Amino acid sequence: MNNNLVDGFGRIAKKLRISITDRCNMQCVYCMPSNNTIWLEQDSLLSFEQITRLAKIFVYLGIEKIKITGGEPTVRGNVENLIKSLSSIKGLRSISMTTNGILVKDKIKILKESGLESLNISLDTFKPDRFKAMSGIDGFYKVRNAINTAIDENLPVKINTVIIKGWNDDEIPHFVRFSRDTGCVVKFIEFMPLDGTGMWSDELVVSKKKMIEIINNDFDQLSPLHNDKSDPARLYTFEDGKGVIGFIPSITEPFCQNCDRVRITADGKLYSCLFDKSSNNLKSLLDGGKSDIDIIKCINKSVQEKPEGIIKIIKTHSLRPTLNVMHTIGG
């Protein structure tokens, strides 16, 4: 059996995002619905044992890196136990987690000891009032303390920053200074139509090109680092080597042709693309007592049917708000 997960465009899946909950303790404007959120029933979620079994199958099929996502993964109890189980899988090269940082501070030490190798922490502003306006809660200092704790514990931390025109684009230089001062990678993300609020429009997108212009006006010229083509972030640094700035230009420079990621939702649905509306239900196979071979067949079928991605949506002028909702599919 060919152990590579190859889709119809010749892309090979090497990275797996696993959402462990759709719930979140924040309500960011670019992600969560503003009201009437319908949560998954807790008994519909994959158990940690089921996640570990699926992860072993995916690693057998060539997956090398796993990222734990949500919702907010730390609202699910004992996430460190899952990290420990995953870290024992032979052939898995790395385990990381994306978090909003509100609850993670006191877990950083045990997460690292359990095998977590890096954290992506979301931070969209350094202004506490603006933080509350964008996230729905008064939590800025908790997130900053979590970042500081990760740095103190020598757990590599990257900052994810969604830039929205008129909301926080004036803070781009501040984030650059933060990267230069701390050594943390800062990744600027173009605003994508994955918002539960339906507020997305192309007028709110600040392009990678525009962000680089803003940075070059205030600092020495950015110069590109050697980039892994499959990594969505295009990484840059400065002549003095201080700071690493990444850009995820999903809207203005889509990177679908190099995509090597697939996703499992908290209730066990496999999505081959962040913008795909169709999925395959792996949990139903697990609950039905199906064999690993049956599950592998389903995974292969899903990957082979992977769509071209957002690049096709852009080509056909089909961009619109809420193409998918981020908290339900996982980042």
From TrEMBL:
HAMAP family, A to Z: MoaA_B
Keywords: 4Fe-4S, GTP-binding, Iron, Iron-sulfur, Lyase, Metal-binding, Molybdenum cofactor biosynthesis, Nucleotide-binding, S-adenosyl-L-methionine
Domain Radical SAM core: 8-232
EC number: 4.1.99.22
PANTHER family noted in UniProt: MOLYBDENUM COFACTOR BIOSYNTHESIS PROTEIN 1 (PTHR22960:SF0), MOLYBDOPTERIN COFACTOR SYNTHESIS PROTEIN A (PTHR22960)
Cofactor(s) the protein requires to work: [4Fe-4S] cluster
Name by which UniProt lists this protein: GTP 3',8-cyclase
CDD domains according to UniProt: Radical_SAM, Twitch_MoaA
Any one GO molecular function term: 4 iron, 4 sulfur cluster binding
UniProt entry tagged with the keyword Hydrolase: no
InterPro entries for this protein: Aldolase_TIM, Elp3/MiaA/NifB-like_rSAM, MoaA, MoaA-like, MoaA_NifB_PqqE_Fe-S-bd_CS, MoaA_twitch, MoCo_biosynth_MoaA/MoaC, rSAM
One GO biological process term: Mo-molybdopterin cofactor biosynthetic process
Top-rank taxon, per record: Archaea
Pfam families reported in the protein's UniProt record: Mob_synth_C, Radical_SAM
Organism: Candidatus Nitrosocosmicus oleophilus
Substrates-to-products reaction catalysed: GTP + AH2 + S-adenosyl-L-methionine = (8S)-3',8-cyclo-7,8-dihydroguanosine 5'-triphosphate + 5'-deoxyadenosine + L-methionine + A + H(+)
